[in-house]
Amino acid sequence: MLIFAISDKGGTGRSVTSTNIVYRHALQGNDVCYLDFDFGSPTAGAIFSVGSVARGTTRTGLHDYLLSEGSPEPHRVDVWTESDREGLRTKPPGAGRLVLLPGNEGGGELPAVDEEMLRRCVQLFSRLDEEFDLVMIDLSAGRSFTAELVLQATVRLPTVPFRWLVFHRWTRQHIIAADGLVRGGDGLLDVGARFGHDRDTLRDRIRFVRTAVLEPDAAELVGLRDEQRAWLSACDSELRELAGRHKVGRTVMLGKIPLDPILQWREQLISDEDVLASKIANAETAAAFDDLAKKIVDDNAWEGL
Amino acid sequence: MGEVHTGLLQNSGEVPESTCHELLNLLSGERVRVSRRPIVHAVSPDLLTGVDCRLPSASRSRIRGAGTVLSRSSITGGRVVQGSSHTRIERAGSDRRQPWSHYLARPGVVEVLGKVKARDLADGFAEEPPPDGLDLGAISARFMDVVQTSSLLDRRTPFKIARTKLRWVAEPGEPAITFTLRSDQMRTIRLVHQGEFTPGVVDLCEDLALHDWLLTSLLVIIERARIGGTSATETAVKLAPAVDHLLHLWMPMARVDDALIPFWESLDRRPGFTRQWQSMVDRVRDQLAVRTLAFLRETGGGKAQ
Ligand SMILES: Nc1ncnc2c1ncn2[C@@H]1O[C@H](COP(=O)(O)OP(=O)(O)OP(=O)(O)O)[C@@H](O)[C@H]1O
Ligand SMILES: [Mg+2]
């Protein structure tokens, strides 16, 4: 199964959330790999704490692999052995493989999509799907040639299952933007249909994920004055109403990740140790990632609407 | 020298002989060859790929060669796919690059332009080819892709599993064989045979690659099943696909030339392929037997005895 991670705006929490989902999915016993297709800023290595590829690889990264004919297989990083974080460096019993395919250091966005690039992309997805239970592909924010490329590639792989996650924050601007990215002019549905996807089928394969959400009843808000809490509560219901109108409401939401102070400070994986031993992360955050990692393959959560 | 890639056919079940035929019909007009005993084995016709590239060299000398590579795909037991490529490296009659017609007349031969030491070439074969180097693996992988991405397959495999790569080199001399595990997915064979090279050497390497893949895959499945580390039911569920799809495929030396059987036998003594396979098969069967007994006890079915 291929999962594409996208957001309309940059800095939404797409990479942090999708890496944590993949990590949790591996802990649940699946073989997973993570493709950094955000060629403009390939930072997945940093989130997995693999210093050698923190800003992409200097070997054959995914960017080079797609752009140069005859380049060797893309560089693979086994996170369980190559992470600098001690807690990640041993594969827990029962966990599956956790492999990162980094972008290139100094890669840059794709200049266009051509036939050779498309062929290589199809080949890459098809080979990885043979080997891994889940392949997560982190795209750049907004409309891009990269998004166009993968939309075309999936048309050519009709038997390979795929799904899309659209990440957005819980604000007015983000809700409207997420809707626009999917349904707006030159959005995912438009471009997908142009290249041969069935519009309705494609729509059913898209779900939304809310990132860094502050619930009005969250523990963080305990010290607030009543007036502030009432105001937040009113905002929240207004946003829910807005989300419903923009078709990014509850029924198409796969999950939401609470705002977590540690993620505000640093882009990283949240391990059980962070929750239980050092207690720097909130249990709710880890639980939300864990839940998403299950829902992502749970067909009930993806039934047609 | 050559390289064989081996993987699980991307289909939910075993495919019938007629489908194997269609899958391997890469070149119209030429026949797919099928042998039925002791296991159905279908092979595509050999196809030529023209190459003009750098050749392997342990001393990293720049040696150039031009000629053709012979490749084929095969399916064993309607379940396992292989892509196999090889070429013979020979000294050219002249140091000048010849027109393609010259090379096409000698299928499966690459002529070395300039001076070369056979030893240096053979010593360098195991290394990853440079970007302008002879990459038999890339050709084999594409021959596998053609089968794996066919619309005749449903891609709903019972489990995900990596391809393995076996890179081999053969030279004349005092008979010997060395099999080396280079990484999780990469193996090499260095073979010294008496007299002239025969196509039987390719068959031997393909047969060894097939059985190495079976061993590797069964090991992975047993590891995933976490015998003793999780519930017996969960273990049984994870082991079941091995029983359904892999165990019956072990047929060593089925297509190996009599003269080359001693090579297989020597690897069977050490590292002892069949011994390891048998002990794993016993382990899987024992686990499932234990599970069945427990099941009978739970349902009261065991009381009858
Ligand atoms: N649940 C969360 N709680 C608090 N902060 C978060 C949360 N998720 C993400 N963040 C923070 O938000 C910032 C942006 O996250 P991230 O880099 O994942 O976004 P992105 O959408 O991938 O951005 P870009 O478009 O630049 O690639 C980071 O500093 C990250 O740590
Ligand atoms: Mg990012």
Automatic annotation (TrEMBL), chain A:
<keyword id="KW-0067">ATP-binding</keyword>
<keyword id="KW-0238">DNA-binding</keyword>
<dbReference type="InterPro" id="IPR050625">
    <property type="entry name" value="ParA/MinD_ATPase"/>
</dbReference>
<dbReference type="GO" id="GO:0005524">
    <property type="term" value="F:ATP binding"/>
</dbReference>
<dbReference type="InterPro" id="IPR027417">
    <property type="entry name" value="P-loop_NTPase"/>
</dbReference>
<keyword id="KW-0547">Nucleotide-binding</keyword>
<dbReference type="GO" id="GO:0009898">
    <property type="term" value="C:cytoplasmic side of plasma membrane"/>
</dbReference>
<dbReference type="GO" id="GO:0051782">
    <property type="term" value="P:negative regulation of cell division"/>
</dbReference>
<dbReference type="GO" id="GO:0016887">
    <property type="term" value="F:ATP hydrolysis activity"/>
</dbReference>
<dbReference type="GO" id="GO:0005829">
    <property type="term" value="C:cytosol"/>
</dbReference>
<protein>
    <submittedName>
        <fullName>DNA-binding protein</fullName>
    </submittedName>
</protein>
<dbReference type="GO" id="GO:0003677">
    <property type="term" value="F:DNA binding"/>
</dbReference>
